[in-house]
Amino acid sequence: MPYETLLTEFDEDTGVAVIQMNRPEALNALSEAMMNDLTSALDRCDKEDKVGCVILTGTKKAFSGGADIKEIKDKTFPESYYEDFISRNWERTARLRKPIIAAVAGYAVGGGCELALMCDIILAADNAKFGQPEVRLGVMPGAGGTQRLARAIGKSKTMELCLTGRLMDAAEAERFGLVSRVVKAEDLMDEARSLARTIASMPMAGAMMTKEAVNYAYETPLSQGIQFERRLFQSLFSTADQKEGMDAYVEKRSAHFRDK
Ligand code: CO8
Fold this sequence. Notes:
By secondary structure, the chain is an alpha/beta fold. It has 2 domains: 6-201, 2-enoyl-CoA Hydratase, Chain A, domain 1 (Alpha-Beta Complex), CATH 3.90.226.10; 204-251, Lyase 2-enoyl-coa Hydratase, Chain  A, domain 2 (Orthogonal Bundle), CATH 1.10.12.10. The protein is built from 11 helices and 10 strands. The strands form 2 sheets. The chain has a 6-stranded mixed β-sheet with strand order 1-2-3-5-7-10, with helices on both faces. It has a 4-stranded mixed β-sheet with strand order 4-6-8-9. Strand 2, helix 1 and strand 3 form a beta-alpha-beta unit. The longest helix is centred in the N-terminal third of the chain and has 16 residues, at 32-47. The model has no long low-confidence stretch (mean pLDDT 95). Octanoyl-coenzyme A (CO8) binds at residues 26-27, 29, 65-70, 86-87, 90, 107, 109-111, 133-134, 137, 142-143.
């Protein structure tokens, strides 16, 4: 289905879906139309069994410049509260059940940084810049910047970025564990596709449960998280892919997974 604000592709052979935000003239500002399109595209990825991994990306200059300031600047508190404006769709990315990689080139700022933080892995181009400049607009992060960023890079660095609006470059983001890897800008999509293909080739149930368990680590005390992980681990012994994966290991051959 064509979208007004996104370009999408899906390769059935590899199970990799790519969602590209495509409002380059506005540095992929996250307009309501774009968030609606993104929600619809993500719904389809979760529903389509053959999708094994999703890549969310932007354009060369920007992953996203954040919420569309021109669209929201005249909103009032009652409108924002009662209409639940812009917040309606914002957590959809974090609720995706399939693994999702943010492939970030250029600016990922404000809501753009928060959107990347909702993904499972952030792969950064060497020209990527991350930050939460909302304080300079008279507001503050509103889609997880104070929460997910603090969990990702710690309190002091988060405070510094959120209180000053300073942007950090890809090398600093890697040093502080925000991104899994930095690659040359021209190699970003090749690297993202290669990573996504590897993830999509894994048995689906194991990959999805692994994602669920890692995310659970951010929500629960350690003992509950360990218990949850153990139950998921045990439940995988009910799948054909577990039998095939372990038989193949013992028989020294490649596994042929059924789910994929
Ligand atoms: N909203 C609207 N338009 C934008 C945005 C944005 N966030 N970012 C860039 N643009 C537009 C610019 O206005 C410009 O348009 P025009 O040509 O019509 O003037 C075009 O994109 C190109 O941008 P620049 O010329 O500014 O490009 P530069 O390379 O000079 O600068 C920057 C790049 C530094 C990224 C700069 O564009 C900038 O500062 N952008 C705003 C960044 C920002 O403050 N983001 C935070 C927005 S608020 C937010 O995200 C809160 C999210 C909370 C969600 C809550 C959900 C519940």
